[in-house]
Structures are given as C-alpha cells and as structure tokens.
Specification:
The complex is a heterodimer of chains A (about 325) and B (about 170). Chain A is of the alpha+beta class and about 325 residues long. Chain A folds into two domains: about 80 residues, no CATH class; about 160 residues, Alpha-Beta Plaits (2-Layer Sandwich), CATH 3.30.70. Chain A contains nine helices and eight strands. The longest helix of chain B has 23 residues. In chain B, about 25% of the residues are buried. The chains are: A alpha+beta (about 325), B alpha+beta (about 170). The structure holds zinc ion.
C-alpha cells in the first residue's frame, strides 16, 4: 500500500501521462489532497510553459507562492516593456537578476540611440533649412542676373535713344526674313525713311530737342505700322523698315500713310511746334526676282532703297519713291 | 447619513506634522508591529461589536479616505496615468507601504492591475484563501477616484505567501 502510494506520487512528479488514482488508496484523504495539488500544479506549469501568463494559480503553499511570484514578475516585465514601447525610457527592472541587468542595459542603450537619432534629425532639419535659405538666396541672385542679362541683351540689340532695333540687329532680322520669304515665296519691301532738313532742326533747337524729335518720329512710325514690320535706326536721322509678305500696292499705301502721318503730327515743345516731313525710298523685291539671306543681297536691297531715297530728295522731299529691286525704276508717290 | 456632531473629521493637521517638535529624539518612523497592533486591535473591537462584514466595510471606507488624503498630499503633480503610476511606486516605497508593480494599465477601459509586495498590512500573515487587505482596497480606490473623478471598484483578487506576502489588486469602473 505504502509502495503504491509512493509510486503514484513519483508518477505524478515524473510521468508525462497523468497516472490513475490508485484504487486501493481511495480512502486516503491526504493522498487525494496531494494528488489534486500535484495535478493542479502540472496544469498550471504547463500553462506557463506554453505562454499563458494569465492562468490563475489556485493552490497555496510555498511552491504556489514562488510560482505566483514568477508569474507576477513576468507580467510586470510585460507591462514594463509596453511602457518602453510607448516611449517611457525611465523604466528599470529591479527583480529577476541577470534578466533585469540585460533589460536595463537595453533600455538605456535604446534611450541613448534614440536621443542621438533625435539630435541627428534636429541637425539635419537645421541643415536642410540653411540649404533652403541658401538656395532661395541663389535663386534670387540668379533672377537679378537674368533680368540684367535681358537688359544687356536688349541694350545690345536696340538703339538706346529710340528703342527700335540697331543697325546690326536689324540686319540679322532682315536676313532671316528674306530667307523665310524665299522659302515661302512672298515679296518683301525695305524702306529707308529720312527726316527732311533734320540738320536745321538740330541747329536751331539744339541736339536735345533733336533727340526728342527722333523719339517722336519713332512713335509715329510704330503707330502707323500696326500691321507689323521690322523697324530699325540706320543712321543719325535715317530709319529702316522691312515689310514682308505684302504686295507692292499695299506696301506703298502703308508707307505713304506713314509719310502723311509724320507731316500731320508736328512735335509740340514748350517753346513752340516743330513741323517736319520725311522722304522715303522704298525697294520692292518680288519672290521670283530671287531673295537670299547673304550680306551682298542685303546690301544690294539697301542700295536700291538708298537710290530711291536719293530720288525722293531730288523730287523735292516729303515724298515716297519706289524702285523695284531688279528694274530699279523710279516711281514717285505723294508730295504735299 | 450620519448627522452627529464631528470631533475628528480627517485632515493632515489632525496628525500633527512638525516632527522636530513632536518627536525630536524618535523621529518619523516606528515599527510595523505597532502599526499592525493598532490596526488589528481596532479590527478586533470593531468585529466583535459590529461583525466581520461591518468591520471590513469600516476598514475599506477608512482606506478610501486615506487614499484620497495620500493622493492630495503626494500625487497632486501627476498629469497622466504613467506619471501617477510612477508617483505611487515611489511614494509607497519611500513611506514603507509596499513595493508596487503594475501588470496592467489600460486607459481605454480604465482597468488597472497591480501587485503590492511586502505590504504593510499583510506581509508575513499566514497564507489563507481569505483576501484580507480591505484597507488597501480602499486606499487604492481613493487614489484612482481622486485622479479620475470616477467611482472605482478595487478588489484584492489574489493574495499569496512567498516569504514576503504579495497581494494583487484589480481596479475597474463598474
Ligand atoms: Zn493581501
């Protein structure tokens, strides 16, 4: 009997399978109590071993007490890890020996690493901000530079006094226009406009007033060429106008209207009114006469227009003389 | 509700706080035996006069009063649950009430679970199935009630002997 009791207890402690309660000891109340205690202990330990920390420990005594302490420690640890995960790096474990030391060292290192990461992030943010400011400054400087560049380009291409194209830029644009006219097969006309007796205006009114007159004429030319056309200042009181794509009749009409407008729009100064007229030489080039963009061609068209202008002066000024580029025939228009 | 005239309505002044003057030689501390002597003799008289249930209720109510006074004096700076938890842990240790560890602080459901090791009221008592820390239950309720303005139920759900006795409390909202 005693042997079977001891054997049963041994099985309860060691055997993986739960042993049957020995029938012969059925009346032993103390053995029943020990049996139940050990069965509960096995179940509880099994729950803990498989990760169920909440399993209630329903036994008493020193073993149960130690088991409860272990359970509580693991639950405290879980809670502390949750706190660390939520950002509380002040958590320290003061139980569970080696485990506590490892946990505390881990939290300290995590805290240090995160602090240094945060510092680095702050530095990076500062650097980014500094970079942003620098880029903004550079962009501002670049914008100023671009504006200046545009101003220089404009100054280089335009006549400072009147704002129309200078001789060189007019030449470039006119050559490009001749090329286009050649490709598309349309006519082109080039007019040289010369202010009659400009020297006298300069002499009597002074050069400053002379400049104002040039600006005034420019304005008149621009307003009368509202259909387009390239305007340039060719010399002192000479302007050049290129009118592409129009037949001779229309061109003559436009240019002569320009001449009339100058005559009808005297320049008013504080000391009086300056009346003026212009003589215009017009060279007309038909597409079949051959257009090209080279310098020789340009010069020859200028020469034709110049000849026409000379003829206009000879004809008594304030008139338009047209020459066909090839035929170079005089054709005087207007004169009032 | 009791309408009798009061002589000892609690506030900290009743205790007398100037230790230098009151106990220049003995200072702040006394033995825990003396504390328990007072508690258990009082419990003895209350139980014999009014029965166990009433005695427990009186102790629980006194604990709640003490917990509220404790909160006002020691936890008034706590701004959130984590800082309250920290303060409770520190002050319980400093004052020798017990070693507090938390197992659960669920602010969504307002459920808290904690253990108290080396409890002033019950460490070293025999291991029984009885949950005897009713004063502690009230004490913890007083703290959480004061902090949240709510009416907590605190229960000692487990109490065990492992050298220094440990008690587990669960605080929930009804
Ligand atoms: Zn207890």
């Amino acid at each position: 009997m005693q042997d079977s009791i001891l054997e049963h207890i041994e099985k309860l402690l060691h055997s993986p399978a739960l042993p049957e309660f020995p029938a012969e000891a059925d009346k032993e109340d103390k053995l029943h109590a020990i049996h139940n205690y050990l069965v509960t202990l096995r179940t509880t330990l099994n729950a803990f071993a498989t990760g169920d920390l909440q399993f209630p420990v329903d036994i008493h005594g020193v073993i149960a007490g130690r088991l409860k302490a272990l359970q509580a420690n693991l639950m405290h640890l879980t809670w502390q890890i949750q706190q660390v995960a939520a950002g509380d790096f002040t958590q320290r474990v003061d139980f569970m020996g080696e485990y506590a030391a490892a946990f505390n060292s881990m939290v300290t290192q995590l805290d240090n690493a995160l602090t240094s990461l945060r510092q680095k992030e702050e530095e990076l943010t500062k650097l980014t901000e500094a970079l942003r400011v620098e880029i903004a400054e550079k962009e501002e400087a670049l914008a100023v530079l671009r504006k200046k560049e545009a101003q220089f380009k404009h100054l280089a291409e335009h006549d400072a006094l009147t704002g129309v194209l200078n001789r060189r830029s007019f030449y470039e644009l006119a050559c490009a226009e001749f090329k286009r006219a050649e490709e598309k097969g349309y006519p082109c006309s080039l007019a040289i406009i010369d202010i009659d007796f400009f020297k006298q205006i300069n002499d009597t009114c002074g050069h400053l007033q002379g400049d104002d007159v040039l600006r005034h004429i420019t304005k008149t030319i621009k307003s009368s060429l509202r259909h387009g056309g390239i305007i340039g200042r060719y010399g002192g009181d000479e302007f050049v106008v290129l009118l592409p794509g129009l037949d001779l009749k229309t061109t003559k009409k436009i240019v002569d209207r320009l001449r009339k407008q100058v005559a009808q729009a005297p320049f008013k100064t504080s000391t009086g009114t300056i009346h003026m007229t212009v003589s215009i030489g017009l060279a007309h080039v038909m597409p079949q006469q051959g257009l090209c963009q080279d310098t020789i061609f340009f010069k020859s068209v200028i020469k034709t227009a110049d000849n026409a202008l000379y003829a206009a002066k000879e004809a008594g000024r304030n008139c338009l003389v047209t020459l066909s580029h090839c035929a170079q025939q005089d054709n005087v228009t207007g004169k009032e | 509700m009791n309408t009798l005239p009061r002589k000892y309505a609690f506030n900290w002044d009743v205790i007398g706080t100037d230790v230098q003057e009151a106990r220049p030689a003995l200072g702040l501390y006394t033995s825990f035996e003396v504390y328990r002597l007072l508690q258990f003799t009082l419990r003895d008289v209350l139980e014999s006069r009014y029965g166990t249930k009433a005695a427990d209720e009186i102790f629980r109510e006194a604990g709640t009063l003490a917990g509220k006074a404790f909160f006002e004096r020691y936890c008034a700076d706590a701004t959130d649950i984590p800082s309250l938890v920290k303060t409770i842990q520190q002050e319980f240790r400093t004052l020798g009430i017990g070693i507090v560890r938390f197992e659960k602080t669920d602010t969504k459901t307002m459920t808290f679970q904690l253990t108290v090791d080396e409890d002033l009221d019950c460490s070293g008592l025999p291991d029984t199935s009885d949950h005897i820390c009713v004063y502690d239950e009230g004490f913890i309720k007083g703290i959480f009630d004061s902090f949240t303005g709510k009416d907590f139920t605190v229960q000692e759900v487990d109490c065990w002997c492992s050298g220094a006795r440990t008690c587990r409390f669960k605080a929930t909202l009804p």
